[in-house]
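@channel sequence for tomorrow's demo:
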Amino acid sequence: MKIDEIGEFGLIGRIAAAFRPLVPTGWEGIGDDCAVIPWSDDRSMIVTTDLLIENVHFLRDRISAYDLGYKALAVNLSDVAAMGATPAATFLSLGLPADGVGVEWCDRFFEGYRSFGVPLLGGDTTASPQGIVVNVTVLGIAENDRIKRRSGAEAGDLIVVTGPLGDSSAGLQALLADLPTTPEIAALIEAHHRPRPHLAEGEWLGREADVHALMDVSDGVASDLGHILRASGVGAEIDTASLPVSDRLRKTATEQGWKPLKLALTGGEDYVLLGTVAPTRFEELQARFTARFGQPLAVIGRCVAGPAEIRYDGKPLDFSGFKHF
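structure tokens (generated this afternoon):
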């Protein structure tokens, strides 16, 4: 059997099944944005790792060394945010080819990596026979009663996101199409190269008991929401008219003939947070969130009893997020 026949998550499932008997009691491994390791009576260590490979996750001639360093850490910090945790330290491994990567490139990479002020404690460097390879591990700390998981969603919960969807994917489309750099295009490309991990929002939501499930949007809502639904055993109804799409994306999509709905649902790499919230006190929670962050949580749908599937405006759509293999 080939890997592309079972896909990324089929492969992950096989790995998880093989190692589940070795996971110590009280530890949480494969299945969420981060692993959870007990650290003290009231706190746990949160661990995540991610890999970026040239020509799969980025194009060297389309992204600066600074932006690559920034993004390499940002995507991992987003996982920590999705658990309601605070980042504490990082480790970095770099595979560098001899062609076109000099000391100055490395200096700029680490300038971008330092943008978040999280310490780098170690890692590894090696020669790469082909292309740049970046692997980042982040350690975070969370109070046990504030850790958010994918498995907490309940029927009746409102489905929310903490920011606009589709900008990063539109930025990638603009790069690949070599579109002229208008202010809107420049902003979309920046959203792709410099996504903002919603750390403050994640810590805030982690303190709220009415927030039942949380994860970040890396592969697109159409894919990532499915992880929450399967882990929680519920379905979802999405109101596509409520998807938060920026004016710059709408304008550019109209000019280029793109489908903003598809970009918003399947584009991925927005690194906003996707969560489910109890409806009972939502208005009060919404008011406090808006006062703290200057914009409301966008309600895009509701969890429903039933199989772990998504319906859009009452019907299925043939949309899926990014898939490896």
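heads up for whoever presents: The two ends are 13 Å apart (CA to CA).
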